[in-house]
Please model this.
Amino acid sequence: MPAPPPPSPRTARGRIEALREPSSLGAKLVVILMGIGLIGSVALTALLAALIVPSFNQLEDKSVAAHIERTRAALGDFATKVEGAVRDYGDWTASYDYMVHPTPEFEKESFSTLAMVNLNVDGMAYVGKDGRIVIARWRTPPGRSEFVAALGQTDFKRVLGQKNSGHYYLRLGNELVAVGVAEVRRSDGTGDPRGYVLMARRITSKTLSNVLQLPATIDLADRPDTDAIVSARSTLRIAVPIRGADGHAVASAAFSVTRDLSLLGQRMLLLAVAGSTLLLLLVLAMLRRMISMLVLRPLARVESHMQMVRTSGSLGLLPDEPRKDEIGSLRNSFNAMLEQLKDLREQVEVQSFALGKSESAVAVMHNVRNALNPISTILSKGIAQAPPVERSMLDRAIAELGKDDLPAARRAKLLAFVAAAIEAETKDRADRHGELQIGREAMSHVLEIIGAQQSAAHERPEVAPCDVTEILAKNATIARYSGSVSIAFSFPAQACYVMASRIILSQVIGNLFSNAADAIAATGTDSGSITVTITEADGRAVIAIRDDGEGFAAENTPTLFQRGFSTRRHKSGGLGLHWCANSMAAMHGSLRLESEGVGKGAYALLTLDLAPTIEQTLAA
Model:
């Protein structure tokens, strides 16, 4: 075939300019490169942020955790000192006796303002086990009433738990105090505790700041039960709960720390992102120029040639160019494709026509064979079946009954024999009638297959609501006569209407039952079972057909649907499953096979659309 003349330089330049238009490949490549640059920049930023920011955040979190732990330790140490002071009063025989017989001498000596100054506490109290306040004192009179009111609302058993001393924090007006509690016992620790002794010491923001070595305040308004951290751009506001007797916070220790580590991480991230983005932009600019030189110009020449081919209608070959890269390989492959396209198209048409005729004919014969198997079995069984009673014995019994001198006992036995023979003959006749009825249904099935083949061969089958339970029952009855093994069937009794071609669906189910029967027979047993379940969900029905036959390996599943494949050496089929899968797809459904392994049976899963409710009612 002669090649068209090469395009002129003016035409080639026009094609290159066309590739730079907004809808051209060149413009799209520019947009793609810009998108890649943007995505790369974002991805690089995210990567650097994922590497740098978490590391500095972890260091910052560790620093914050250290501040919180140091604050808790300071608060605990302050309250523990008060607890240590009150423990001396708790394990003291004088206190133990005072709880029973309060005396002014003890109060003056051990419970005076001087004693509180020496102990560095602001308040002291003795409380009975029943909550009765024996004595309570505070350095300043205004604080005593609040102190006494708080003692009456405190559950000291909860504060102590299983110990004989403990501590907690208490809010008194605008002040916060640490309270130490101890049970009142003898000096040697014996005796049933007669109450509690308490000592309270005020803690101020200045005291807390001196302990923490940073500016800190005691916030009585903010009372979080957990550590609260409020982040700002350059600082962190930290609030550590100060817990009372009930375990909830009565105040918080608040302080601020600078975010030096976080700010350092942000500066490093910005520097790394700026440098890497600038480098990425330079690489993309160079890449765009290379694409224009190596790709866009050769594609412009190819597009110009294809325009000439479309205008002239002649499949001319691309002009030869001394290139050994992908563009040259593309030109050679495209020329070879043009040369072979016509021949391949003709071959495909011939093969498709022949294959369609062959597949249609073989599919019909395969389905007809499956439908005729029960008829052959019924006829063979009827021919081989012996009469229930030999005719000669019946005639002899009747002749003997005609004698007048026959004894009564003998006559009764003969009458019973004749009655049993007649009953056996009647039953045999009824069984034969039932088998012939099944054979007639199978023959009707064959006639339906042949009658529907002409329309089914050329168009997609028309689907309509049909009761899949009825089809299962019909094919199960026929399948009992399809082989030499005894098969027990189990399937739902309630109706289930699906959208399908009744005849084709019956053929598919009949094929699957036949294959299941062959699988059961292949195990070498005389009997087996086929169980059918129907599941409805999301407007679809899934019919699961399970047998206890020989099964198959999971890796062989794709092979089962190949045309001509069969696991039975005595059969040339395999078309059954291939045809069944295509038929299910034609009815907007699907067929899938599953097995847990050789010797463990198999599943056949058919999926179809459920019929609409109104159409189900009309079909019923």
